[in-house]
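Slide 14.
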Amino acid sequence: MKWTNTLANDPVWGREITHQHQKEQVALKLAQRLKNGDVVGVGSGSTSFLTLRALAQRRDKEGIEFRAIPTSIEMELACSALSVPTTLLRVERPDWSFDGADEIDSNKRMIKGRGGALLREKLMMQASKKVYIVIDESKHVTRLGQNFPVPIEIQPEAIHIVETSLKQFDTITKVVLRRAVAKDGPVITENANLILDVTFSQIDNEMEHKLKSIVGVVETGLFIGYPITLVESDKL
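Slide 15: predicted structure.
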């Protein structure tokens, strides 16, 4: 039985969406990819929310049924509000998935994880047969790390071990524990971990491997070497 309370039926993004018109245009374009019976991996963030909403609108209009595998609690709630059936990654493999990006360079190297779901997003990307990255023009950068730090998800017990190890990297200029906005203390991920936001002056292709070799690092927001298809306002 579906919940009937307001929060369970309110598919509204709780914050202001930047570049909303552009994001809605690419979301509508990607929704044309949907086929009846698809299992779709749903990324996190406002772009993914708008894309999920476009998929649900096409379902309602054309009767195309699909199941979603959400990568965060926020997207689980959005699926529920939009009456999109969900399944689990350990139960079904996605036919395709979509997600946004915080930054992407000319070599399709990305930074993701401002929403805190980087581990689940990376698992989804690894599992999907086809991965679409939905972006607007503001996401393109000439240098990875130009606008945003790299999120690093860590086990709480390892916070001092990891920070000490990060100080050995010459290209790291700043390490900050991500603090919560609506609660005291740090952000806690869906996996009960902490996030360090790390600023780099330069990021090479081996950096993801170097960071993950540190004991206590669970995952990084560097997405390098993944076979992705970009979806933008002027092409699919």
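Speaker note: The CA atoms of residues 80 and 193 lie 25 Å apart.
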